[in-house]
Design a protein that fits this description.
Shape: globular
Oligomer: single chain
Distance between the termini: 34 Å
Order of helices and strands: HHHHHHHHH
Strand content: under 5%
Structural class: mainly alpha
Mean pLDDT: 92
């Protein structure tokens, strides 16, 4: 639990930054650890709030929790590009970006389900080869949604 809050979430931000930069340059692998530099505590705080809010929505009802998870899904990408965003700015920007797009994001995730199952069949080793595909696609979606607002 604590390792997710203080390490895992920050690595997710770095991974998202890696795939964002991969759009038009060849980033270094060290990009994954960029979340630990700069405004580390702000990133930890905002992602903890994101996880907490999503969990509370899931406790209320499953469907609203899933909808909120998609509403908050752009926050790690926003923090990858600007770790100094305030919590209110991050939540607001993510909400603006995903307005009217949540169902499309859900269908996109469903489209990767076959690939993930196929990768998991090989004792999970196949996921090492499959997982970059959805991650790169979601980074491209972020860039498209970012230009839309």
């Amino acid at each position: 639990m604590l390792q997710t809050i203080f390490i895992g979430n920050v690595i997710v931000v770095g991974k998202n930054g890696y795939f964002i930069k991969n759009n038009n340059e060849n980033p270094e692998l060290s990009e994954i650890f960029k979340g630990f530099k700069g405004n580390y505590l702000n990133v930890v705080k905002i992602l903890f709030l994101m996880d907490l809010k999503t969990l509370l929505w899931l406790f209320l009802f499953i469907v609203p929790g899933v909808i909120k998870a998609y509403e908050y899904s752009m926050i790690p990408y926003l923090l990858a590009e600007n770790p100094n965003l305030s919590a209110d700015e991050a939540f607001s920007l993510s909400k603006q970006m995903t307005t009217g797009q949540k169902m499309d994001l859900f269908v996109l995730d469903l489209s990767f389900l076959g690939w993930i199952i196929l990768g998991a069949i090989c004792c999970g080793i196949g996921l090492l080869f499959v997982q970059p595909y959805p991650e790169a696609t979601k980074a491209e979606v972020y860039l498209i949604l970012k230009h839309r607002i």
